[in-house]
Amino acid sequence: MTASLDALPAEVAAGLARMEMDGIHFAPVRHHSPACALALQAMLRELRPAAVLVEGPDSFDALLPLLLDERTRPPVAILSQAEAARDGDGPVTRSAFFPFCDYSPEWVALRLAHELGAQFNFIDLPWAARDDDADAGEDEHARSLMAERYLAHSDYLAALARASGCRSHDELWDHLFELRPAPALRDWRSLFADVFAYCALARSSYETAVLEAEGSLARERHMAGHIRRRHAALRAAGDGRAIMVVTGGFHTLALQQMLAGPAPKPGRTAPAAAADFLIRYSFDRLDALNGYGAGMPSPAWHQWVWESAQASADGPHLEQVTAEALARYARQGRERGLSEQVSTAEVQAAVLQAQRLAALRGHAGPGREDVLDALRSCFVKGAIDEGMAGFTDDLRRFLGGSALGDVPPSAGSPPLLEDARRQAQAQRIRLDDSTPRTVRLDLYRKESHRLRSRFLHLMDYLGAGVGRWQGGPDFLGGMRLELLIEEWQVAWNPLVEARLIEVAGDGSTLQDAALARLRREEALLATQGQGRSAGAAVRLLVRACVIGLHERLPRLMDLLARHLAEDASLASVTDCAHQLLNLHRAREPLGVQDDDGVRALLELACSIGLGLLPDLANVKQDGEAAAVRTLVDLRAVRAALAGAESDDAWHEALARLALAPAAPGIAVAAGALLFLDGAWDAARLGAMLGAHFGSGARPAEAVRALGGLMAAAPELLLTQPGLQRDLDRILAGWDEAAFITYLPDLRLAFAQLKPFETARLAEALAQTHAGLDDALASVQYGFSEADMAAGARLQGALALCLARDGLDAWLAEETA
Question: Both 226 and 177 in a single domain?
Fold first, then answer.
């Protein structure tokens, strides 16, 4: 694609003529492009410039010693963070990454400039000085300072891709640039001219006002100011050597035009709160297929191509890269024991297919898309979602890679990050591979597994995301506590380190940072109106046990005791008791088996709940259902904790509630619980129920009483014939208007019964009405001859439709 000046717009043609301006040489690149990196190598070695100026926040210059350290091994990234206010909610941390891999043009420029003795500087606006929100739609964790959204969304490039028979912008790029013959890749004048035209034409799709509003022009003015000052300084010193400017190709035309015109206004500087860190990065975060806005798809593939190019002057050897990659893919499948494994013959066929596709498409050798198409045609038998389970995902992960880079100890990582790495290694979590791995932890039988679980929960509490909980006992929610095994998906990746850097101000260890957050949550209870809520305070106690902050337990237990003493809500106290009971049951995996404080708090909660029980007598109608649930829950906690306090006191409190005239639902529920406890006999229960369901009972009160009974003890309706008769008489005495009025309440009440229990109740009631039982028994459910004939016709029509669509084999399998 050597650009023809006659076919280009005037400003693009003029830009091609200005690729060198008074000793300033422009190298327009695509970020993370091996082709651009190879051309840049050739350009640097030929020009041997005095200075190399690279797109990237100029605040990064402070990290140049670390970037040049021989122990720094890509992929790495500079994490830039700044505080900003948002919607009046106080300051928030904005973070963005500037990644490097071996084949990033910026990395090649940095390392080779240092080797040649050239000055090197970043020239872009610092992240903290940018006030645009152009990337607000991106995943905040994956936000990149190298975003190439304009190339990906260009109407011109989309049309060019269609005209070239390419399926995407990335395939078009490979076709035009990455897959040139090896000598053409090192012809930097031709390649950069074509990259310039490609990007300048893409830029023509965007209006100046748009570029100004989202911040591109401000950045370009800042970069032009740097270039102008460096050029003037070198010339004033009598140094006439070249200056190289390495930026994304989208910016090159604007920089040329700004340098040819009057000097721009001085750019803004970053606020003092900005901070930059050199951190490890990973291939999976560099992969465009994972949402990275400046990525080349499949970074591991491009790494192999780059390594081949560096191994010999006439490389890269794409045929060799393809053969080795496919052999590695097949070997990986065998090592992982996949059910669908690739044979040597299939590898050979795929290599040949990739070579033929490359030749057909005019490529110097197989590229990424050629290899993918070859794999699909040679490795997949049948439908792609049928014969090769997970093939697409496995292949994507393989070509994407999972390698993590490294940074020197002098990178100045906060102590918190170093502590997290140390603890992760102690828990056998790999720090050099970002591939997610399934970890199954036996919490009740293995102490080492409990320690690993607490570490993973602790990291999750801090938002670091090293593990994703998949299943097992949920101690915080109080569910599935009978399960023995907890399962996680665990992977260490750059986002873990970025989040830890964000919270590094909370402490030098993970435990210190978690403790600081727990203290803030304690303080928030009062500000959120929960200063006396035992139900809210107990969650802090359970959380501390789950994440391993056992040294905080005495203070939290004291706090909870104070909340219990001040809490006037029976629902809150009962909720607290339930969570304490769950904690008591799970005391071994949560590390409190030797602490009597939990049981003491549980007994205190039951005692306080008993003291608040009389308040239920005054509950209004709309609160009866919730009050009955609280009553039942408190009884369940007491039953699980034998000896919490005297049963006599409990039964006396229930007996007083059973006499509450203003709350029939509560009264009947209390009476039912007394009967279930054996404190009342059937006669006493029947007398109370007769008052609510017997002769003269009003519909509204009877429905409320029924709701309380069904919420507390629905089995009584099945076991007490007298209650069934009373209820039947009440319903029979209602007129149609009353029945319609209370039908929703009746449906809600009877929903407490299981389907077979509903059938038993219907059968029992039917037997009390002459003839109704026989009528129910005579009901038959079946199909007539006409129904069967219609079904046969429908089946035949369906078979014809499937045969027409080529799916008759599927029907044969389903009916076999």
Answer: yes
